[in-house]
Design goal:
Number of helices of chain A: 6
Shape of chain B: globular
Order of helices and strands of chain B: HHHHEEHH
Helix content of chain A: 25-40%
Strand content of chain A: 5-15%
Radius of gyration of chain B: 16 Å
Order of helices and strands of chain A: EEHHEEEHHHH
Largest sheet of chain A: 5 strands, antiparallel
Number of strands of chain B: 2
Oligomer: heterodimer
Strand order of the largest sheet of chain B: 1-2
Radius of gyration of chain A: 18 Å
Shape of chain A: globular
Structural class of chain B: mainly alpha
Number of helices of chain B: 6
Helix content of chain B: 55-70%
Low-confidence stretches of chain A: 28-49, 175-250
Structural class of chain A: alpha+beta
Amino acid sequence: MVSRIYLVALMGRENNPLYVRDFVPETASTPISREPEPAGNGDSGSVEAVSTKISTSRDRELRFQFLAHISLDVFAARLPQKTSDSDFGLLFVQDEIAMYGWMTNTGVKIVLGFASGEIIGNEIRSIFRAIHFAYISLVCNPFYSVDERRPIHSRKFDINIRRIVDAWNGTTPVHTPAESINRSIAASPESTSNTSARSTVYYSNSNNNNNGNIENVVMSYSASRSPSPTSAHSVDSGMTPPASESIMAS
Amino acid sequence: MSRTPRQIGEEVWKTRVEKVNAELVTLTYGSVVAQLCKDFGNDYIQVNEQLDKMGYNIGIRLIEDFLARANTSRCRTFKDTAEIISKVGFKIFLNITPTIGNWSQDNKQFTLVFDENPLADFVELPDDGKAVNELWYSNILCGVLRGALEMV
């Protein structure tokens, strides 16, 4: 049974937070649920333990900010010895959450928090790479000012990260209120995010295969289109919007 | 001997065109539009106009290049023109072939539908409520077409 991703965080070069998002499954808002999860999966123990500790969402937020800060310390501590690779591997384990880290050449740090249980092998790299590409596509947006201090508020980036995590967790994408608002906007702020063969595409539909399709996530480099769940209308020069289907090479 | 516009386009693209990195084009165009938006204080109507003017200037020059490379005979009908624009023109310069559709009753108007737009890769329009409705991001293409066709 594969551990779920609970937390994705990006931090900038100055160790400022760029993006912190948790993916804890929504247990009831009442604090403690003593029942183990009915699926009887391997990490039900840790899920229960987490849900007892993670009561309110404010709590959760603080906890994850806290974890992100700890990981910054680990980055700083390990950096002198790091030779080539961007992958920092397992940073630490705290409160049933295992944190893995990845630092890009530009100093942007990506950390992932997993429900601790299994040691994740090399599949980690593919997730990190996928997130890195999501970040790259955000940065390539000419309207995004690459101001290192400001946190990321891009809807498209949010959706991408969510999709990557959902693909790993093997869950269907949850239609959060934010996304349903997206649907109702006819031409969303996302213009055609279609990427063609020559540029990177990095996410696939979650077909509820357990984390096998993270490989697809990175493999689908070539010749796939990005499926934005919102309308893929191109706000183009007065030409009728293409009815572009999302073609995924999964 | 290449006959159909599609074949002509493919052949010219493969042989007589120098290639440039796509990301360079995308990022350059992106920064042009972003800079225009900044310069005109997010007055998207103005930006559209400027893009159209820029496109026009490009188009009047580009047509010579196009005619030299493609070496096609004169178009007899407007439908021919549409085909040539889509299958040869866009193919040579952007390596895309937009689909032609929506012909009007008198066959004087048609639409080009772009399934992929290399100019707009990675682009996310600014979230200020206006941009989505007012900014025509790839309006330079309109200008190019206008300029090019005016010269023929």
